[in-house]
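Dear H.,

Thanks for agreeing to be a second pair of eyes. The structure we're designing against is below in token form, covering all 286 positions.
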């Protein structure tokens, strides 16, 4: 196993402009956002820049809410290469994309170019950036998420990115329950991506607690992988586990192949400052 920390520097449609005092200032598409981030413990480098934020997420006594500048729409577009995403203020403090996973989108596309027709399973797939990126390069993607609203966004993102209606198999289901069903049906994949939250609920009220369910989920991975397996990615956020812990967990079920792991971060524009946002571990066939 090898530790490789990964940092996203941004692109023309995304930048971490500043961070500090428990918040981050970002450009996503044409919009500048001010959102909380508990990892940003230091002082802000450019406090004057924060007045440019067009939307700010505030922790309110009753519920959580966004404060928007006048005329700011609820939805707006964002691009990455040939992928077009719809971002919105509908989902808690998240807006529909995790830019720190850009390196994974690149890896998926490179893999598709190299090997041709691959099957990919994306569990806890959120609004589908990884799924769309893979499908654009010809992967046959099964995308699973418990949120009906999120699934609607996945379909919209796929259409806006030029994909045919049948390019993605999109499933609204509890990820663990659906993974078990795939095992029973004997379905297998060359690529598996998993983005489990610390806590979540399935469409029928199923409760996901990562500390209780992650072992059961990862134990299914060998049965879900085809003999020609290429890649498994397991991402993590705010659950108290280290990247090495995730790596050991994956190595336990996939002892052959190569495993890398580390922190996932965003690098502030025009600065050496790096904001850690999560962890990952990655298995590859060789």
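And this is the sequence the design step returned. I haven't edited it by hand at all.
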């Amino acid at each position: 196993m090898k530790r490789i920390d990964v940092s996203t520097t941004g692109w023309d449609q995304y930048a971490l402009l500043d961070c500090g005092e428990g918040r981050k200032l970002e450009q996503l598409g044409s919009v500048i956002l001010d959102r909380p981030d508990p990892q940003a413990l230091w002082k802000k480098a450019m406090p004057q820049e924060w007045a440019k934020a067009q939307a700010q997420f505030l922790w309110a006594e009753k519920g959580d809410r966004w404060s928007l500048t006048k005329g700011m729409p609820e939805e707006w577009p964002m691009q990455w290469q040939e992928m077009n995403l719809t971002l919105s203020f509908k989902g808690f403090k998240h807006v529909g994309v995790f830019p720190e996973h850009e390196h994974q989108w690149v890896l998926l596309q490179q893999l598709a170019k190299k090997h041709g027709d691959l099957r990919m399973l994306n569990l806890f797939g959120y609004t589908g950036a990884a799924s769309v990126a893979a499908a654009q390069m010809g992967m046959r993607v099964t995308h699973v998420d418990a949120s009906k609203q999120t699934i609607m966004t996945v379909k919209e993102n796929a259409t806006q990115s030029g994909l045919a209606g049948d390019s993605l198999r999109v499933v609204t289901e509890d990820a663990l329950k659906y993974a078990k069903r795939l095992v029973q049906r004997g379905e297998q994949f060359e690529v598996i991506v998993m983005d489990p939250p610390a806590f979540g609920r399935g469409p029928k009220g199923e409760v996901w607690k990562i500390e209780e369910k992650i072992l059961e989920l990862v134990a299914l991975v060998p049965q879900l992988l085809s003999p020609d397996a290429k890649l498994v990615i397991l991402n993590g956020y705010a659950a108290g586990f280290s990247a090495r812990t995730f790596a050991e967990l994956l190595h336990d079920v996939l002892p052959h192949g190569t495993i890398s792991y580390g922190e996932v971060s965003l690098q502030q524009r025009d600065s050496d400052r790096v904001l850690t946002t999560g962890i990952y571990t990655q298995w590859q066939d060789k």
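Two observations from my side: Residues 81-85+94-284 form a domain with the Rossmann fold fold (CATH 3.40.50.150). The first strand starts at residue 2 and ends at 3.

Warmly,
E.
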